[in-house]
Design goal:
Number of helices of chain B: 13
Oligomer: heterodimer
Shape of chain A: globular
Order of helices and strands of chain A: HHHEHEHEHHEHEHEHHEEHH
Number of domains of chain A: 1
Number of domains of chain B: 2
Shape of chain B: globular
Helix content of chain B: 40-55%
Structural class of chain A: alpha/beta
Number of helices of chain A: 13
Helix content of chain A: 25-40%
Radius of gyration of chain A: 18 Å
Strand order of the largest sheet of chain B: 3-2-4-5-7-6-13
Largest interface: A-B, 47 and 43 residues
Low-confidence stretches of chain A: 1-9
Number of strands of chain B: 16
CATH architecture of the largest domain in chain B: 3-Layer(aba) Sandwich
CATH topology of chain A: Rossmann fold
Largest sheet of chain B: 7 strands, mixed
Mean pLDDT of chain B: 97
């Protein structure tokens, strides 16, 4: 793997910041992502966290499983609070601390959408990270606009979700912000590089991390990374960066421009109990959706 | 040097904010508040005021951005009205429960639907239980003074609560009167540097607002109640200090007019108290022993001060410019509950709700109302009652 060769030295020991003994479920992807985050920023970050799994994972007052600063905020408020924090630090001349809105897909693609769009349009100097576990997992696996078509959730209990996933990264590209990237907890070095790049850029930066959730997606907790990798290997989740007006496919996704290099989508779907009721028609519909996403990437690459 | 200039209520607030030297202002436009942040934008863009303006996409985000900036050590300000205040209501609670000092102007306008931009107090009193210190001005000078004092009170270590300052839309916000602006350096010295209970700026790992168990959470909320009690003394001290330094002292949580020998007291809040006082002036000339108590602070509610004035009167007429549907006017409810802390032998307390949705109540309306109320008491009225008086011309 090329990303392994260019792996930069870690400035921080992730374990210095992400402490053991958090309240995450077995196999939770969130601490994986937080470890990568802390490897880049150490304790020099302020996480602005709306209602989401992380609100619970970091533990109960007065303890905290993350040795960095966290401001817990209302559900729809992450991007706005982060804007305020960022402005205050600037006014006070503090430049070595990264302000990061850290939100789930509900707090981003649904209730926080207007706030996110506002902060992006104002080009606030923050990094906005959506960890995308594709449903309201903290409240008990309810459908979000980021839930993919066909997935069972507790509010789509019989038919499964009937609409495709809202593509928030594309919406952010349409905002013409300095940096947009998709990432996956299955590829921590890729995520690390993207965070480093985001760090070197100022203004609004958006990273969406695909984060398979064992209880929500109905798979064995030991397969979190395998499911994440399959999402990429089947071409379902495309890793890319967008900056300077250009879209650049990331290492793991680059070969998959050629459809013959992609694993069959069924390999990804069949690992997850949430797709148990999937019909051949739905599989076809998902396959077409994946193909459409690749067509969009190809158009951008030209 | 102090100077006197003609200012609308909105501009009076903007000038007070400027003197308080905020670091961050975040706001979203709404009638009739907009001129406050328009003026502040102008001050910032012309370099008069060194602050950062965040022109957010909603009121919810306006207060959220203020909250974030305040948590990270900035002195902040926002302003809103009516629907905007309701839209940000979630964050109103969030800020006070985090004990983060900040100041917000509320330019009152009634609550929709239907569309109506005229003032009453319904938007302001709707924030009653949110843990903010709530002040309400009678005129533009007081709007200026209260706004400036709000920063001082909010950042007092005995208080550490956010403060909102209310004025009525249009009646004050869009009409001008001479306002004295004190010397900028003197104000700067008096207000001092920003103080707050904690700062989250990355200098050390800190968490704010994480999952907290019931007992610890209750302790935090109890702390707000205790701070409200301490705030009463802080408000009075700041009022006295301000009076000594800048020449205007208002009496603390309430203001009294002809209270000493009054047999009847009218209680009200906001700009219409000016019309009420005009009516009382006439009634005094006619020999009626009537006085006025003006509520300057709705939270903390000044029940001690009210008891001191009202304990010896025959009747109290509470004028509310808001209604708790299904109950009474909000000031009346608090006033009766407050007096009941001291005695169950209450004077006659009548609640008049009027001026709702911007209906104009003139001095002559107050005159007629007070006269008939006094006559009813003198002809043997023994208990209070509630009446919604609809003024029609």
């Amino acid at each position: 793997m090329s990303s392994a060769r260019i792996r930069p030295p870690l400035p921080y020991n992730a374990r210095d910041v992400v402490l053991p003994g958090d309240a995450a479920c077995q196999g939770c992807p969130i601490p994986i992502a937080l470890k990568v985050l802390s490897a880049v920023f150490g304790d020099k970050m302020i996480l602005v966290v709306p209602a989401c799994c992380t609100s619970v994972i970091v533990g109960t007052y007065p303890g905290q499983s993350l040795r960095a600063s966290i401001v817990h905020v209302p559900f729809a408020a992450a991007a706005a609070v982060a804007s305020g924090v960022s402005k205050a630090l600037k006014m006070r001349g503090i430049s070595d601390v990264q302000v990061i809105a850290w939100a789930g897909d509900g707090g981003t693609s649904d209730i926080g959408m207007a706030t996110l769009s506002g902060a992006a349009e104002r080009n606030e100097d923050i990094i906005y990270i959506m960890y995308d576990n594709e449903a309201y997992m903290n409240t008990g696996i309810q459908r979000s606009s980021s839930t993919p078509k066909g997935a069972w959730t507790t509010t789509t209990p019989v038919l499964g979700k009937e609409e495709h996933k809202k593509d928030v990264a594309k919406i952010l590209i349409a905002h013409d912000v300095p940096y947009v990237a998709t990432a996956s907890i299955g590829y921590p070095h890729d995520l690390y590089s993207k965070l480093q790049r985001a760090r070197s850029i100022s203004g609004f930066r958006y990273i969406q991390i695909h984060a398979p959730c064992p209880p929500g997606w109905r798979f064995d907790p030991k397969y979190t990374v395998r499911v994440a990798k399959l999402a990429v290997e089947t071409g379902y989740w495309i890793l890319y960066e967008y900056y300077n007006g250009k879209l650049v496919l990331s290492g793991p996704s680059r070969p998959l421009l050629d459809p013959s290099k992609r694993k069959p989508i069924e390999e990804y779907l069949k690992m997850q109990g949430r797709y148990r009721a999937l019909t051949p028609e739905l599989v076809n519909s998902i396959r077409e959706y994946v193909e459409r996403n690749w067509e969009w990437v190809k158009r951008y690459l030209q | 040097m102090a100077k006197k200039i003609a200012l609308t209520g909105n501009y009076a607030i903007a000038y007070a904010v400027k003197l308080a030297r905020p670091d961050v202002i975040a706001a979203y436009p709404i009638t009739p508040q907009s001129p406050i942040v328009e003026k502040l934008s102008e001050m910032i863009e012309s370099g008069e005021l060194k602050a950062s303006m965040i022109r957010v996409e909603s009121e919810h985000s306006a207060l959220a951005a203020c909250f974030g900036a305040a948590v990270s050590g900035a002195r902040v300000f926002t302003a809103t009205s009516s629907q905007g205040l309701l839209y940000m209501h979630e964050v109103v609670h969030w800020a006070s429960r985090a004990r983060i000092p900040m100041v917000m102007a509320v330019v009152s306008r009634t609550i929709n639907t239907p569309w109506n931009i005229w003032p009453d107090h319904s938007d302001f009193v709707d924030q009653r239980d949110a843990g903010w210190i709530m002040a309400y001005a009678m005129d533009n000078q007081e709007a200026f003074d209260l706004t400036l004092q709000a920063f001082k009170i909010s950042e007092d270590p005995a208080v550490y609560l956010p403060v909102m300052v209310g004025i009525e839309g249009f009646i004050l916000s869009h009409t001008a009167m001479p306002v004295e602006i004190p010397d900028e350096d003197l104000v700067g010295e008096w207000i001092g540097e920003r103080t707050q209970p904690y700062i989250i700026d990355g200098s050390e790992p800190r968490g704010l607002g994480g999952l907290t168990l019931p007992e610890d959470t209750e302790d935090m909320f109890y702390g707000i109640q205790a701070a409200m009690e301490r705030a009463k003394e802080v408000i009075k001290r700041v009022d006295r200090e301000y009076g000594k330094l800048f020449g205007r002292e208002y009496g603390g949580l309430i203001s009294c007019y002809y209270c000493n020998d009054a047999k009847y007291i009218a209680v009200a809040m906001g700009s219409w108290t000016g019309d009420l006082i005009e009516a009382v002036n006439t009634l005094r000339e006619e020999g009626y022993p009537v006085g006025v108590v003006r509520i300057r602070y709705y939270r903390p509610f000044p029940h001690e001060d009210l008891w001191n004035i009202l304990r010896s009167v025959r009747a109290v007429f509470v004028f509310d410019r808001a209604i708790s549907f299904g109950a009474w006017g909000p000031i009346f409810t608090d006033l009766v509950a407050g007096l009941a802390q001291y005695t169950l032998k209450l004077p006659v307390v009548v609640n008049i709700v009027a001026g709702i949705a911007g209906v104009h109540v003139a001095a002559e309306d107050f005159y007629n109302l007070l006269k008939s109320l006094i006559e009813r008491v003198e002809s043997g009225l023994e208990r209070g009652y509630f009446e919604w008086v609809k003024i029609r011309r």
